[in-house]
Amino acid sequence: MTQTFWLTAAVLIVLALAFVVAPLFLHRSGRRAEMDLRNQNLLAYRSRMAELDREFEAGALDEESYQQLREELAGSMLDDVPDAERGVIASPDRARGGKSAIVIAIASLAVIPAAAVYLYGQWGAMDDVEQFRAMQEMMAADSDRLGQMQELTAQLRERLEDNPENTEGWAMLGRSYMRIEQYEDAAWAFERLAESIEDDESGKAVAWGLSAQAAFFLSEGDLNPEVSNAIEKARSLNPDEVNSLGLLGIHAFSQQNFEEAIRYWERIVSVAPNHPQITSIRQGIEQAYQRLGREMPQEQPSEVSGAGVTVQVEIDEAFQGEIPDDTTLFVLARRANVQGGPPLAVARLSAGQLPMEIRLDDRFNMSANAKLSEAGEVRLQARLSRSGNARPQAGDWQGEVDQPVPVGEGENEPVTLVIDTQLVQ
After folding, report:
1. Which of 13, 122, 243, 260 lies most in the core, judged by the most C-beta atoms within 10 Å?
2. Do residues 268 and 369 both lie within one domain?
3. What is the CATH number of the domain that holds 381?
């Protein structure tokens, strides 16, 4: 919680206390002044009455005048001090009233701030306020970073125009333009990258594929002549250039040509199993099969190559029959010595395939820089997701293997993983 919030809250609480406590003491002061005036008038009445009595006893007043003056004095007293006698008698009650005011004031000083803090904790929106402030700070920081990135990119472009043979510089310039979403400039930079590469047809093909990708973003997903031309140049050098295959798959899917989309994406899985976006590509293939109303074929090679773990995934009897067959199933492997963070490998399946056996290896890696085969031991987990989201959510079903599992070469005994828990929160 921010200091500004608490200062503001304290000021408001003090104002609230002022509205409660001030009237108690102001009323008490006014009452005291009123009673003091009444007592003074009463004393003056008694003094004047005693003076009349002395004058009457001394013979200065006859009885008729004496009685008349007493009646006039009494009438005047009734006008000036209507509750005089009651005021004098009520002095003990005034003392009790003063004590009550002090008790109420002390109770208010304790109860009002405590109640305000507690009720705000229950129904307040401090989390939303903090989130809004964080978003503002992030936006300001992003704006500063964007300005710095644009300035640095302009400087890099100027230097590269003087030294067009610098292939690494053109690649960096293209990626920088992609980050700041200047896709037209990014496509141009990747074209210059392709032109600067001489003896590497594969690298030149990748450059043209990246140029096609930037032009595709610029056209907002339209396979226009610029995109098609860059794809043709990339595939003329390498028919399996993955950026071009990915764009062709996306375009085919958007045209509801799901068979062709599957063909392009499955080719990526075949030629680039360690592609950084391999998980998203597999998800796209699965969605295409679902649109066709067909079950996605299970990838189970007859010969296992490379290090990995074999998992037998089952579901507890308590949950059988209540989970729809189309519920998404994730089988995950994480490093045994790392808490949290992204998994090393993820296989996306469906509940209808349970029970099943699956081999987790480098085909299911999340990143080319973090391979399952390079991990000595992994922790295994399976999750049935209602939403199809890999992040755990309330209502999902989950299971895990308690002990770390060694990653081994070739065929090894499957590890049994039972989905036996439903997440509450």
Report:
1. 243
2. no
3. 2.60.40
